[in-house]
Hints:
This protein is mainly beta. The chain has one domain: SH3 type barrels (Roll). The protein has helices at 2-8, 115-121, and strands spanning 21-30, 33-47, 54-61, 64-71, 77-84. A hairpin with a 6-residue loop joins β2 and β3. The protein is globular and about 45 Å long.
Amino acid sequence: MEELEKAQLKTDIPTFEIGDTISVHQRIIEGEKERLQVFTGTVIARRGAGLSETFSMHRVAYGEGMERVFMLHSPKIAKIEVTRHGKVRRAKLYYLRGTSGKKAKVKESIGRRTKEAKGAKS
């Protein structure tokens, strides 16, 4: 069972954490056509491990807060791009749900280094 799951895990996923703003490019099939739809928002939660790992994203569009849960290793996700790194002190950012304006902002982390950057410098 574990070997079957390992074969389906994606390897091109960038490292992102809670508080980061990311863009998820999702494949949407309408009839015979396939298109990509981009959902940009703040990561407010991650849970699970392996093939069943999920992450929740939150954004405010047209004055309404919206939230979506994505399967990290889903074949429907074409690409994930990290737009900015957030500086947070919580594991889950559920408090962002009812906020708007400046209260809904997450400070940007300027000096955060990723695993790729650490390996390139050494």
